[in-house]
Specification:
alpha+beta, TIM Barrel, 7-stranded antiparallel β-sheet, 16% helix, globular
């Protein structure tokens, strides 16, 4: 079969006459294994069943246009003779571009998704995956041993995988090996629903996937390009490419326009007012935190110890039931009690925040006697819920007898849903609440897939979901209260969700380590905080790694994020949310000292750690190593973390963070030579590059 060659500074791309990628060679180095197929498409029949077809099911007609572009036409499917798929491939100086079109889908079928351009990775290397702010994965098969194994994205199935825009906040991946990198992205300015994924192929290969949902568009045109680039470098080079593209299309807010609270860099103190440190079980009042004003002495104590203001971020404060979305109001204990606490916090120079539980629907609580089954039935609210392709109904997160609640996810396209959510947010603004993490459990701001044919939206997921979510978020904005989500805001939602609970703690069980990819791309546009570190005790062995909390604080700081800690029932710093309170606590003095020292550096250097632009270092670091013991194996990392920044006035800075309670020797190696210095224990320093 004939082959086509495209050349640019990324190398030479070879495409077979049947549309498969055969090779990408850069400077004599082969980055890809020959692909098995040119594309895969998913159709839904009238019964809601998924039919998967790929390019091998079609007759092929390749065309090489005079301008060097390649068009590959697929038709003649035995079952669907009218179905036609077209791939267009071209190149400029930097990128290889692909776009796709689908026509002739039978009227009784939905064009649900297309997965074009399926690069196949050879063994080895590391993959940057933009899930939960960034994971660098060196064992691409590890997830297949867990409940997070790869699956074709669709209706709610207990694992969000690489859902975009959502828990995957960006629509690209970067693979690196032997000093080379491969960049694979969807440069889609409308941010249509996708699965940004990697899948096992055969015994030791990995297929990259940007499964794109069509939204029942007939005929379907991608309207954007999938792009491939390559070069010498690593995952940061991929982040730099995506950032350059993101800044070239509309949608990002102005640089550096952060809410006033964030300019004061509060320490986020996360604690529940009732319960036992988990999301289930009995919910007794916690004397240290309820009534609300009981916590004021604890907040003031941390303010004194860390030499700065605090954001008291409350859990289990809802007067309905803990984790009973969409309803939260009135506060547990009444509005006056919480209002008095907010006033007291503000008099002392602090802030008040509350967790909520997003756009799900709670039929009944698994924790308390809260029950909405009768109300739901009387008002026929089942019609407002997300539906699957077989009209099934479910919820994606925290759902079940052994979890927080039993319920469903609401379809955000529905007017009743939008009005309900907006009204709940408005209730929060009747009190002087500074921050509401209303979209907790909508990771990244996700609107989960809905297949209902009765809601007035297309019968399968697509870019219409992003439009509907943006419309909802736009209505929720309030000038006196910041709105946020669980996990960093996905790319199209950054202008609305201005402060968010990061989820680097979720990275460990995917065969890799967290890396600040999101911060590299978006730090100038949004400021987030370290998060409640939910589930970290399931991943990191704190008995063998007693400094693990110090490492996580340093990781957040070095990436430019605000710091946070969770507190136990005695007001002491704990490992993270849902870590059993019976566990031995982290060393309190070390944690407080590190927080105080880091926040001092942060407040003194806002041009770096608040307004700065992360860069790929043009230097290397030599220092001692620290071994972090996870339940999946040991991870060796630098005992001094570092990051490189450019300030708004163009100065380059290095951040060095020593999170250990001993001084550390560091050598910075650059083209100009070596610089040796000693870093003090539990501290950070910022140097001129």
């Amino acid at each position: 079969m004939s082959e086509f060659l495209l050349h640019n500074r990324s190398g030479t791309l070879t495409v077979a006459g049947n549309g498969r990628i055969v090779s990408l060679e850069k400077d004599g180095y082969e980055l890809l294994h020959p692909s098995l197929t040119a594309f895969t498409i998913g159709l839904r029949d009238e019964n809601g069943d998924l039919l998967i077809l790929d390019s091998r099911d079609f007759k092929v007609r390749p065309e090489n246009a005079p301008d060097g572009n390649i068009t590959v036409c697929f038709s003649g499917h035995q079952r669907f003779p009218e179905l036609a798929v077209e791939l267009n491939i071209r190149a400029d100086e930097t990128f290889f571009y692909f776009n796709a079109a689908v026509d002739g889908v039978p009227e009784n079928h939905l064009p649900e998704w297309i997965d074009p351009v399926q690069p196949l990775l050879p063994p080895g290397g590391k993959l940057f995956w933009p899930r939960t702010e960034g994971i660098l994965i060196d064992d691409l098969r590890f997830r297949e041993k867990t409940h997070n194994k790869y699956h074709i994205a669709g209706f709610l199935d207990g694992s969000e995988g690489g859902y975009y825009p959502g828990v995957c906040q960006m629509q690209f991946m970067t693979w690196q090996r032997d000093g080379f990198y491969l960049y694979f992205a969807a440069h889609d300015p409308l941010h249509g629903t996708k699965a940004v994924e990697f899948a096992p192929e055969g015994e030791n290969l990995t297929r990259l996937s940007l499964q794109t949902f069509c939204g029942d568009q007939r005929p379907y045109r991608s309207g954007f390009d999938y792009v491939i680039a390559a070069g010498k470098g690593d995952w940061m080079d991929g982040c730099a490419i995506y950032r350059q593209w993101a800044e070239s299309v509309p949608g990002l807010p102005p640089k550096g326009e952060f809410p006033e609270m964030l300019r004061h860099s509060p320490l986020v103190l996360i604690y529940p007012v009732r319960g036992s440190g988990t999301d289930t079980g009995d919910m007794p009042d916690i004397e240290c935190f309820f009534p609300y004003s009981n916590a004021l002495d604890t907040v003031d104590d941390y303010a004194e110890k860390t030499a700065g203001c605090q954001l008291a971020l409350l859990m289990h404060w809802e007067g309905t039931a803990p984790w009973a979305p969409p309803y939260v109001w009135p506060p547990y204990g009444g509005e006056k009690m919480l209002h008095d606490y907010a006033d007291a916090l503000h008099r002392h120079g602090h802030y008040l925040g509350v967790y909520c539980s997003g756009t799900a629907w709670t039929q009944k609580s698994s924790i308390t006697d809260y029950n909405m089954e009768k109300y739901c039935a009387e008002n026929d609210l089942h019609r407002e819920m997300i539906r699957g392709p077989h009209h099934e109904i479910n919820a994606v997160i925290c759902n079940g007898e052994d979890s927080q609640r039993i319920g469903y996810d609401m379809c955000i396209s529905r007017q009743w849903v939008k009005e309900t959510v907006v009204n709940e947010v408005k209730k929060l603004t009747t009190l002087p609440i500074d921050y509401a993490q209303f979209f907790d459990q909508n990771l990244g701001g996700a609107f989960h897939p809905c297949y209902s044919r009765e809601h007035g939206h297309p019968g399968c997921p697509g870019k219409w979901q992003t439009d509907e979510m943006k419309d909802l978020l736009r209505q929720c904005i309030h000038e006196n209260m910041i709105i946020g989500a669980e996990a960093a805001a996905a790319h199209p939602y950054i202008e609305y969700l201005k402060f968010n609970d990061l989820r680097a703690s979720f990275a460990w069980n995917f065969g890799g380590v967290p890396v600040p990819g999101y911060e590299f791309v978006f730090h100038e546009y949004i400021c987030n905080f370290q998060g409640n570190q939910c589930g970290i005790s399931y991943h990191i062995d704190s008995d063998r790694s007693p400094e693990s909390l110090l490492y996580r604080l340093a990781y957040a700081f070095t990436g430019g994020n605000l710091l946070s800690v969770t507190l136990d029932k005695h007001g002491k710093i704990h490992w993270g949310w849902v870590a059993p309170w019976e566990m031995d606590r982290p060393d309190q003095d070390s944690a407080v000292t590190l927080i105080r020292n880091l926040n001092k550096v942060r407040r003194e250097n806002p041009e770096v750690l608040l307004y700065g632009r992360m860069l790929k270092p043009d230097y290397s670091i030599e220092c001692d190593k620290y071994t972090l013991h996870t339940f999946y194996g040991d991870r060796e990392m630098d005992a001094v973390l570092n990051s490189c920044w450019e300030t708004p006035d163009g100065c380059r800075k290095i951040v060095l963070t020593n999170f250990l309670p001993q001084s550390q020797q560091v050598t910075i190696i650059s083209a100009k030579g070596k610089k040796r210095l000693e870093t003090a224990p539990l501290s950070a320093v910022i140097l001129e590059c």
